[in-house]
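dumping this here so i dont lose it again. seq + smiles for adenosine-5'-triphosphate
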Amino acid sequence: MSDTYIPDIKEFQQEPRIVTRMQALRERPVVMQVNALGKTFGQGPGSVRALEDLNFQVHRREFMCVIGPSGCGKSTLIRILAGLEDASDGSVLIDNAPITGPGPDRGMVFQGYTLFPWLTVRDNIAFGPRMTERSERSVRSESEQWMEMVGLERFADHYPHQLSGGMKQRVAIARALANRPRILLMDEPFGALDAQTRARMQHHLLQIWEQVPITVCFITHDLDEACYLADRILVLDAHPGRVREIIEVPVPHPRSPDQFLSPAFLATKRHINDLIHPPQQHSAGPKPPRLAAVGDDVF
Ligand SMILES: Nc1ncnc2c1ncn2[C@@H]1O[C@H](COP(=O)(O)OP(=O)(O)OP(=O)(O)O)[C@@H](O)[C@H]1O
Ligand SMILES: [Mg+2]
């Protein structure tokens, strides 16, 4: 980032409206509790310690982002939270009960497009609810509501291959929410989208989150995305992935794209950037070799 003066993040975190909001967040019930979580892939000398002693809580209606360098274990973490991967150590509790596998209390949206290609938008969204005891009438009416929520009513009878990337991810969000989960787990859901679509999807997701009482755990490697979306950002270190810091984002709500240049936003971004890439690393590293050693003073 440039050398322009940006105040310290603490100055913004101490603003009364931010203090009040964070206090209210901490007072809400804990939906997800992660205790001493660790994960090792494989055994013996070739094993990989992906996560080490992770401890954190996510509160009801919180929007938490997880950020960290590539390979720090973000996807491993979210797969464990989803129950798709077993932890090697520690535990994850949802509403005080340990998770033992995937469950309807958690909805998942991945970066890759994971819609059922043989089903229409409507039937993709209705897929989960149809597995329950609900009547077909209630399933259909609820699918209509979710399609409206993500702005895809006009595309109800389209198949995934007829949709753009952003539209596919909207269906994926609606499909996850249609199962009425307590927590929405998202692993870089907008990572494959172009910048404009991505910005629209971020804004759209925040609007959904304002309307639907849901807790979100959102993985990203994008600083802007994390600062724009999150109440708190969990920053992970790599090799093994450990919690470096949990940051209370001092950007006021409701969020809007105008805030991307606000001092609070820039201070948050600078703070995380310095955590992930400590300032001394900028000048560190080997010097590039000279291309010619002698007789090269041609300028
Ligand atoms: N199934 C697996 N078997 C062995 N090692 C694995 C497996 N899955 C992940 N790992 C290793 O665990 C570490 C964390 O991987 P993970 O995919 O969770 O990182 P990430 O933070 O999501 O990375 P990225 O930002 O590139 O998506 C990496 O060193 C990776 O090689
Ligand atoms: Mg990943």
